[in-house]
Design brief:
It is a single chain. The chain has 17 helices and 16 strands. It has about 475 residues and is of the alpha/beta class. It has three domains: about 1-100 and about 155-365, Purple Acid Phosphatase, chain A, domain 2 (4-Layer Sandwich), CATH 3.60.21.10; about 110-145, no CATH class; about 370-480, Serine Threonine Protein Phosphatase 5, Tetratricopeptide repeat (Alpha Horseshoe). The strands form three sheets. Strands 1, 2, 3, 13, 14, 15 and 16 form a seven-stranded mixed sheet that branches. A hairpin with a 2-residue loop joins β11 and β12 (about 285-295). The protein starts with a strand and ends with a helix.
Length: about 475
């Protein structure tokens, strides 16, 4: 099986630019995929910075500007789904970035502190404490304190509203920073995507990336279940993990070893505005690693682009093989000059390699036995009592397998779904199946369906006493019913 993911990040559309131009350029590039051997995407991942954001510190002005930017971005993403996914928005995953923060709200939640020179040392220690609510402002050389936590958390309100509106309320984004992660399971691709907010505690005065540990802990059990089902698990967030000595705007990468421990196989991010691939090892003695793939800015201008970098996005192909999972990254780069509004996409660079693509090998994703799959489905069904969901999950496996077939029939009987049983057991091959089918039509009391079942060779020719007894009952019912005596 080969899966293809369109990976875009850091959209950064300037007010003067038009999404129509960007969409048109992507549509033209889409036509090149076939001749260049690129699999058309079945999923889309957006790793943050959906909008440019507002520079205003007036909340009303900022809200107005940000709302309009999200309206425009929503149009773009919907059209992107139409172009690549036939309009299926369930197959796009969106994570927030630092430009999705309402900075006016963040500053409003803080208060300037009056600190005596003797307290500066203690305040500096508090500033660098993990999760601190103290900030340092280089503009006025003062300490600030987040005094209104509820207001501070609401700096993502605009993103949350955009998110739920885009998904038509079918998905929502939690304003609680400890719950800003979610799992989207694409069972049909044997793949799950986990989106994280890497902007925990990020604001105007703190540019460091951070994922709240609770965002991983809260989904640990579900990740383990998906791993046991043989899923390839991809983590998506915004920030890159390495920076220059003078920078602080990268991710606190201590979370990465915990991602490995929780069976995340691949990381996808943006923020640094260049395409790159690195391998992040858990520690010196452990051979397990977490490959990280970054995308550049999709539509940023010269202000957003590092020196020598160009607009860029990725197409990531994933192929499950017998001995490994192969990941091929196709870099697509703007070949036009001076950030022209209309982009001319072509093969791009990956770090310093002018190859257009790079190949990553990760260990084979262990496929679970059918027994363990059914046991897991049984556990979930017993807890949820959702037998229809259990049936749908089982139908994705080999229904000729006796264990699968028997379990499906069990849940269909629990659901009293006789119509399903009738269609599923159209050719019984055992005495038990024949009896289930005869009981099913007996409950339906539909003469034409009873007659059809009685004509099935296995049932018609059976000399089993139980089957004979049920056949006689049904034949008597048909006779009396036709004579108007039943």
């Amino acid at each position: 099986m080969k899966i293809s993911i369109l990976h875009i990040s850091d959209i950064h559309k300037a007010a003067k630019d038009k999404y129509d131009y960007l969409l048109s350029s992507l549509a033209l590039d889409y036509e090149k995929y076939k001749e260049e051997g690129i699999t058309p995407p079945q999923l889309i991942v957006v790793s943050g910075d959906i909008i440019q954001g507002s520079g205003s510190l007036d909340i009303e002005t900022a809200n107005k500007e940000i709302a309009q930017q999200y309206t425009d971005a929503s149009f773009f993403l919907e059209e992107l789904c139409n172009l690549f996914l036939k309009g299926n928005k369930a197959r796009i995953v969106i994570a927030p970035g630092n430009h999705d923060v309402n900075r006016a709200i963040a500053m409003k939640s803080m208060k300037k502190m009056q600190v005596s020179p003797t307290d500066n040392k203690n305040m500096a220690k508090e500033l660098w404490r993990s999760g601190s609510n103290i900030r340092w402002n280089w503009e006025d050389l003062s300490f600030y304190k987040i005094e209104n936590t509820e207001l501070y958390n609401s700096r993502f309100d605009n993103f949350c509203n955009f998110y739920s509106d885009f998904y038509e309320q079918k998905r929502s984004y939690n304003i609680d920073p400890e719950k800003q992660s979610s799992i989207i399971d694409f069972e049909e691709f044997n793949l799950a995507v986990v989106d994280f907010n890497s902007c925990n505690n990020l604001d105007n005065l703190n540019t460091s990336g951070c994922i709240h540990p609770s965002c991983l802990v809260s989904i640990s059990t579900e990740l383990r279940k998906l791993h046991n089902k043989g899923r390839l698990i991809i983590g998506v967030w915004h920030h890159h993990v390495n920076g220059l000595p003078c920078e602080s705007n990268y991710l606190d990468k201590r979370i990465l070893s915990q991602m490995i421990n929780n069976h995340i196989n691949l990381g996808i991010h943006g923020h640094q505005h260049v395409c790159g691939i690195i391998n992040e090892y858990k520690d010196f003695f452990d051979e397990r690693k977490l490959p990280l793939i970054s995308a550049g800015t999709l539509y940023g201008g010269s202000k957003e682009l590092p020196y020598g970098a160009k607009r860029q996005y990725n197409v990531i192909e994933i192929e499950y093989k017998l001995d490994s999972t192969e990941i091929v990254v196709h870099s697509r780069e703007d070949k036009s000059h001076s950030c022209f509004e209309f982009i001319d996409w072509g093969k791009g660079n990956i770090e310093t390699l002018e190859l257009g693509k790079n190949i990553i090998q990760i260990p084979v994703i262990r496929q679970p036995s059918i027994d363990s799959v059914i046991n897991e489905i049984n556990r979930e069904a017993e807890l949820s009592k959702d037998y229809s969901k259990a049936i749908n999950s089982l139908l994705k496996y080999d229904t000729n397998n006796p264990f699968v077939q028997k379990t499906i029939l069990h849940y269909a009987q629990m659901n009293n779904d006789n119509e399903f049983i009738l269609s599923f057991l159209d050719n019984p091959t055992t005495i038990d199946e024949a009896i289930i089918l005869l009981d099913c039509v007996s409950e339906l009391m539909d003469i034409s369906k009873i007659e059809n079942v009685l004509k099935i060779p296995f049932i018609a020719e059976s000399k089993n006493a139980s089957i004979e007894y049920k056949k006689n009952e049904l034949q008597f019912y048909i006779k009396t019913k036709k004579n108007g005596k039943y």
